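User: Could you write out the 3D structure of this protein bound to calcium ion? I've included everything you need below.
Assistant: Certainly. Input first, then the structure.
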Amino acid sequence: MTKILIVEDEENIARFVELELGYEGYETEKCYDGREGLAMIKERTYDLVLLDIMLPGLNGMEILRRMRQFTDTPVIMLTARDAVFDKVAGLDGGADDYITKPFAIEELLARIRAVLRKRDSAGAAKSHNFFTVGILTMDVDQRVVKVGDSHVDLTKREFDLLHYMLANVNIVLSRETLLEHVWGFDYYGETNAVDVYIRYLRSKLEEPFGIKIIHTVRGVGYVIKDE
Ligand code: CA
């Protein structure tokens, strides 16, 4: 269930928004104070935060600035029509969108849906195209592999093998599985090809940097552990 935090000191607005979001199937929590709001964001996980700007305790821009140091949870700022709010500063400060009070609830709902959609597609793209294990990173689109800040040159086969193992992190992969997925079903070469390529990867990724990424599971195969 999508969970939304409402930080808004005008209790009528907060209650109205909470009610409407409830009708739409969102789970909500609300608070009327800036400091309390920031504490809730720190302690719990929300899918989205609706953040008023003028708040007692701590203002919305300051909450946004502080929360961006530890989370990328989407934020929609609620701004008063006649308040001096620099929209550019708000969006530069890491807000995903803003809406001016008073607003039609349909508009707020549309903006919430848009922000959640954007987050979902960004998350999906990220998880498919970028991998991190310890200090090893792989950017699949750019075909760049790094250990720390150092680029590591891999052949196409080495890259494909590492990619498949990263996509199946924490899963022990047999030689047969790796041959099938990385070399292809019709591979008729040496059956120890996997071991040879694992050795190449280790000599490029582990030995120069003194790290351990690929683990051998005796009698089974290999695994990259994300620990
Ligand atoms: Ca307010």
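The first strand starts at residue 3 and ends at 7.
User: Perfect, thank you.
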